[in-house]
Model the fold of this input.
Amino acid sequence: MRRLYLLCLILLGPLLTCRAHNTVSVDLTIRPENQTFACRYELGASFGQARGSCTFNLNRKFRLAQASSPHLRDYTATPFFDAFQQDTLLRITLRFESPVRHEKITLRYGGAIPERFRTDSLAEFTASANWLPNLPDHEYDLVRYQLTVHTPAGYEVISTNEPRRARAGTFVFAGLAPNIELTAVAARRFTRLRAPQGVVRVYKANGAPHHRDSLLLRDATAIVAYHNRIIGRQDPIRRFRILLPGTNRNAFGLLDNCAVITYSDFDTRKPADLLILAHEISHKWWGWGRWNTRENWLNEGFAAYSGLLYLRAAGDTASYRKELAKYRASAAQAPVSLLRFDAGKDMGYFRPVIYHKGALALADLHARLGDEAFFQLLSATAAARVATTEAFLRLVERHTDRATRDWLVARLSS
Ligand SMILES: [Zn+2]
Done:
């Protein structure tokens, strides 16, 4: 019986683990001279269960020209306030003639490139621009994609990976990545930095190379090496890109081995900037918790603590302690525990709870377990792409004991 069970596992294992991904084909035309764009987004969706409608969220400033699909009856596009993003988005709802399990849906839209995502000769289509239609609550679902970008001659397009094809005016990228992370940065010129045989590449749009960029490359390389030793033991970073569009807005890390740092004065000699870099690179592993729920602590709490771990390992224990003290002061202001955080009403405490309480709980777990047991747990969590607190607690119990799990539940409830 046991042998039969094992045989079944061997035969079925690959089938069970091979999940079908939705397919996405995007055709993006960027017109930097008048700061507009046009996009055709085509989703090959499998719904699991037959359904009579499908909804997408999109940046409300874009104009939806057309929605179409083989079984479409009608569609609406109405603005709504998204409590998590604290922004009004466009909710596109397609209703089908009859329930469908699979559907190829095409959305055509365009408009002005938002001001925060462009400069004179640069256009940034990245995760923080909401430039792609997303299925609500499935923004980070992996999709098998092809992204074709058209630009005027004289522009180059950089993404999270190398183009499959590139010739004057047309760049084609493909891969498996979260829908929200499909990336195209178009500029007249990119400066490339890479150490010989280095894992990290830096792409700086337009501006002249600066000494700070070389330091960024050096520090990012050291961070990737450290994170691979601690977090990525089972799933290491083999290639990593840092995009510098110079749009001066924010910094964010992608699951798809890439970070976007928009600050033009970013300087890793400052501990705060080095911490941002170590945090963002660690998002290569920390991004599977649903972003608009308390499970986001599995992304931001873990990334915050990963950044701190690097500061400490790099010898800057003063900044490490100072940051932890800041987190403690911030967490003390939040009257809600991590396990009781409700994104519907507690968004005012998002950072103190999701980032700071999350990181502090990990710091305490680290102190309880010691370095080696904690790092084993961290790398197992990363490799398992843990997406829920319950799954993390199960992993904690498997790697330690029931008492530690119970202790952590109590810790996350405070
Ligand atoms: Zn983060």
